[in-house]
Amino acid sequence: MSAAVGAITRHLSVRQVLEVIVSSARRLVGADYAAIGIPDDEGGFAEFITDGIGEEQRLKIGPLPRQHGMLAAILTETEPIRLDDLRRDPRYRWWPKAHPAMAALLGVPILDGDRILGIVVLTNDLGRPGFSEADTELIELLASHAAIAITNARLYERSRELTVVEERNRLARELHDAVMQRLFSLRLSARAACKLVDTDPGAAVARLGEVEALAAEAITELRGVIVELRPADLDVHGLVETLRRHVALLDRLHDTEVAFEVRSPVDLSRDGEVEVLRLVQEALGNAFRHAKAAHVRIMIASDRIEIADDGVGFDAAEAATRGLGLLSMRERAKALGGDLDLATAPGEGTVVTLRLDSAPDDESEADRG
Question: pTM (2 decimals)?
Answer without folding.
Answer: 0.44
